[in-house]
Specification:
Layout (H helix, E strand, L loop, with lengths): L2 H13 L2 E2 L4 E2 L4 E2 L4 E2 L4 E2 L4 E2 L4 E2 L4 E2 L2 E4 L4 E2 L4 E2 L14 E4 L4 E2 L4 E2 L9 E4 L4 E2 L4 E2 L4 E2 L4 E2 L4 E2 L4 E2 L4 E2 L4 E2 L4 E2 L4 E2 L4 E2 L7 E5 L2 E6 L1 H6 L6 H13 L5 H10 L5 H11 L9
Helix pairs in contact: 3-4
């Protein structure tokens, strides 16, 4: 087979929609070119699946769920089943998932509720490891890693490139900042600052997520400025309001420090400290 013929054959294969004969796909579900659906999977009426996404065996996709392109769902993932919220009364709500996500075995994600805006949003390029759970009305950023059995309550916001270790429980309405790292088995009841490493029961700030900053290409010049900000905000004996005022009075122009200050000022649940 010539290279040209091989490329044409591969292109045709990638554009085919393949549904295993034991799978159940509602005739009104919308499956784009190149989607594959494994054995005994169930895809219901109001589901939209983007190009080249792979649905593994025994997956269930329900509700008004949209999944982007090049995602991969592994055995037993359940997406779009009704919210685990006693206030839910059967109203239509959405689960919107971006592109290139890896959703491992038995992950669950619920749509939103009217009280939370009616939509759960998951960004792109995430890794959701086995048995992790995304509850109603969460907003999850891009390049997120949630390790095995992470449990998110409702209304949680996670910013880009955060990493959450295994068996972490996160209280409803908590925010987790950009490039934050939460160590395994932690209990998170307050906001996790951006760029931080937090761990514990309850979670506490231990310092900068230096490895995350390096991987993200943050300049080395920024680290001393963030270290200084962390000492004032999270390791001093000042109240949080006084710590914020002190740091703000220094009139730093560092964007990362400004981002940190804004995050702390906007907190409604309080921010983890050392």
């Amino acid at each position: 087979m010539t290279t040209r013929v091989r490329k044409i054959t591969q292109a045709r294969e990638s554009s085919r929609t393949i549904v295993h004969p034991t799978a159940t796909v509602h005739p009104k579900a919308r499956l784009a070119a190149g989607v594959s659906v494994g054995p005994y999977a169930v895809i219901n009426e109001h589901v939209t699946i983007g190009p080249r996404t792979k649905i593994g065996a025994h997956c269930v996709i329900d509700g008004h769920t949209t999944i982007g392109e090049d995602c991969e769902l592994f055995t037993g993932a359940v997406l779009g089943s009704i919210p685990q919220d006693l206030k839910y009364r059967g109203e239509d709500s959405l689960l919107v998932i971006g592109d290139r996500n890896k959703i491992r075995e038995y992950v669950t994600m619920n749509p939103g509720t009217v009280g939370g805006g009616g939509k759960t949003i998951v960004g792109s390029d995430g890794l959701f490891m086995a048995y992790s759970h995304v509850a109603h009305d969460c907003v999850i950023g891009n390049h997120i890693i949630m390790a095995n059995s992470v449990a998110l309550a409702g209304h949680i916001t996670i910013a880009d490139r955060a990493i959450i270790g295994g068996l972490v429980g996160v209280h409803q309405f908590v925010r987790i900042g950009t490039l934050a790292f939460v160590g395994g088995c932690s209990r998170v009841a307050q906001d996790i600052p951006p760029f931080s490493t937090c761990v514990g029961y309850p979670a506490k700030v231990y310092g900068l997520n230096s490895e995350g900053l390096r991987r993200a290409g943050i300049s080395e010049d920024v680290k001393p400025k963030l270290h200084h900000a962390f000492r004032i905000l999270f390791h001093s004996k000042l109240s949080m309001s006084h710590a914020v005022a002190k740091l703000a009075s220094e009139s730093t122009t560092c964007p990362e420090v400004q981002q940190l200050l804004t995050f702390v000022r906007e907190s409604k649940r309080g921010v983890c400290r050392a």
